[in-house]
Amino acid sequence: MSTTGRGLHGQVLETLGPAITAGEYPPGSVLRTDELAQRFDVSRSVMREAVRVLESMHLVESRRRVGVTVRPKAEWNVYDPQVIRWRLAGADRPQQLRSLTVLRSAIEPVAAGLAAKHATADQCAELTECALGMVAHSRGHQLEGYLVHDVAFHRVILNASGNEMFARLGDVVAEVLAGRTHHEVMFEDPDPAAVTLHVQVAEAVRAGDAVRAEHLTREITVGALQELDILAP
Amino acid sequence: MSTTGRGLHGQVLETLGPAITAGEYPPGSVLRTDELAQRFDVSRSVMREAVRVLESMHLVESRRRVGVTVRPKAEWNVYDPQVIRWRLAGADRPQQLRSLTVLRSAIEPVAAGLAAKHATADQCAELTECALGMVAHSRGHQLEGYLVHDVAFHRVILNASGNEMFARLGDVVAEVLAGRTHHEVMFEDPDPAAVTLHVQVAEAVRAGDAVRAEHLTREITVGALQELDILAP
DNA sequence: TGTGACATATAAGTCTGACTTTTTGATCGC
DNA sequence: GCGATCAAAAAGTCAGACTTATATGTCACA
């Protein structure tokens, strides 16, 4: 899946990045470039490039005479897809999953509403196709096939919203959905009510009914929140 | 304002980053590290570090034997604060402002609803203080003072939501609001209705009324959308 | 005892030059 | 035409020397 880091600096990042996002180095920890270069058996220039990338993600700060200090989590660029992947792969996975699901619950309904207004005929067609695919794979433990269409569905919605920032969340949503199927054990077939909702969203978008599309999608995301026990008592 | 890029590579980035995000180099354009190093009069190692950062933002892709190619806008890390700043400062400003405002309209109401549930007593106090500050500066062309309290208000909401990803949007919202006051000419005093809404949101959060806080905040963001002529006819 | 100026050590930052590796595209033989 | 081979181009890597900023300790003086 994740392309094994391009170049030496990429390989270093794939070890160091997850280590930092997993909290192995508490905030304020100081690393030295030279020591890291030795540890990873790379030249200083390669290690410097890796540190620059971590710095651009606000995971660390590099200062003269002091070294490379790890920044507190509150300052990380938590929307960086790389950071999200690292956190999802490590000890921070539960919290990352929760905050991403809340994010989805805010974005996707609005995106669906916009999609109802902006979706092209092609996108509408693709959407119904995805929904039908979900229905077709909703019974008999065809979880993989279901996932493919589910991911595609939400991707189309986000793209059809016409908002570039919404569209860029497609990968993130894909990883959340994939995680639900793969990591969190999913024994049973998907909830039939959820499948129906997807079909109805596709219909609403096709009909240009923004209010309905938004409302239905909100129901979907409420379901996602409930799966993680995020709800109002 | 923006700290003049730390180190030589930072200075290079402050020229090259805005140039790319402004579309000066169309997607597919090929740059060569050596040529860039000459152009900016820095060593290759410094230029390589700058390219690495651009690469981590998905603005460019570096491949052997071909060079550093500019990626299409659809692949950029549009949530990177640096990228957002560059786009807001350049030719892409209008579109960036619109997509950010739509993003706000999705996030902030949900954040306000969560804030009503999670806000601490301190945060509630700070919130009312901000709202009162807005009222106090809402008449007589005290736009700067109004802005300060407006920004603080939305920051508190986002932080009080308890969602780390929402909280990280504080800086972005601040820049959007500041832009509205500074760049977009704002002759008159702020809309009294908007001021009232902020006060009411503070009350709702204090009262723990999530539904009301969400609804009121949605009205605020609708106003922001209307300012940019983003509406449903 | 506290405070300021000064010296020193440290780690990042920068530059240079040589070398390696990958990949494109052209050439050549079939 | 087509596949294998080869050469050039650009990024990638490394090593070493040098520069610069700065945290910290020292010492003199109040």
Give your account of this protein's structure:
Helices cover 67% and strands 4% of the residues of chain A. The first copy, chain A, is mainly α and 233 residues long. Chain A folds into two domains: 7-75, Orthogonal Bundle (Arc Repressor Mutant, subunit A); 92-227, Four Helix Bundle (Hemerythrin (Met), subunit A), CATH 1.20.120. Chain A has a three-stranded antiparallel sheet. In chain A, a hairpin with a 3-residue loop joins strand 2 (60-63) and strand 3 (67-70). In chain A, helix 5 (93-118) crosses helix 7 (143-160). Chain A is elongated, with a radius of gyration of 21 Å. Chain A starts with 6 loop residues before the first helix and ends in a 6-residue tail after the last helix. Chain A binds chain B through residues 9, 45, 48-49, 52-53, 55-57, 73-74, 77-82, 95, 99-100, 102-103, 105-107, 109-111, 114, 117, 163-168, 210, 232, and chain B through 9, 45, 48-49, 52-53, 55-57, 73-74, 76-82, 95, 99-100, 102-103, 105-107, 109-111, 114, 117, 163-168, 210, 232. The structure holds a DNA duplex (30 and 30 nucleotides). Chains A, B: GO terms for molecular function: DNA binding; DNA-binding transcription factor activity. Chains A, B: Residues 6-73 form the HTH gntR-type domain. Chains A, B: This is FadR family transcriptional regulator. Chains A, B: Keywords: DNA-binding, Transcription, Transcription regulation.
